[in-house]
Amino acid sequence: MKIRIEDNGKGIEKDKLNLILSPFYTTKQEREKKVGLGLPLFKMNALLTGGNFNIFSEPGKGTIVEAIFVKDNIDRQPLGKLYDTIFTLIIGHEDINFYIKISNNEKEFIIDTKVIKDELQGISLSNPDVINFLKDYIKNGLEEINLNCEKIY
Question: What pairing do the DSSP bridges indicate for beta strands 52-58 and 62-68?
Fold first, then answer.
């Protein structure tokens, strides 16, 4: 199972790439405690399954984080509720455009929030009608590619 996260942000300088994998490093200045566990835990969980982890970044162009998990390894943690994760990510970060592609064998589901926002012509993603649409869209998309919306193990 491969998870790839890609952004078109400011990128990371080469000398900082090793630092961001330390649990005692964060770029978040507003935090009282200076720790950043996201990437170190992501890497650890991939490696525990016998998988792999890579991070690529180019200043001014963005960053790619890629983790491969051995799906049937006993040490692979459950993914939890994929439906809830996608929905919360989109609603909780309305200022970010997400392009999410989920593949299951030859089938794939794509959700592109930029396209959705363009269609909405300024209507907020947190509008109750839009929320209902997004919930149905995500649920139906995952079902079409034969993924259980509640849990993926």
Answer: antiparallel
- 53/14: higher pLDDT: 53
CA separation, residue 108 to residues 3, 70, 143 (Å)? 14, 20, 11
Q: In this predicted model, what pLDDT tens digit does every residue of 16-65 receive, in sequence order? A: 888 888 877 776 666 565 556 788 889 999 999 999 999 999 999 999 99
CA 57 to chain centre: 17
Query: Angle of helix 128-144 relative to helix 82-92, nearest 10 degrees?
Result: 140
At 79, give phi and psi (nearest 5°): -75, -20
The CB density around residue 118, as the number of other CB atoms within 10 Å, is 11
Alpha helices (H) along 18-126: 38-48, 82-92, 113-120
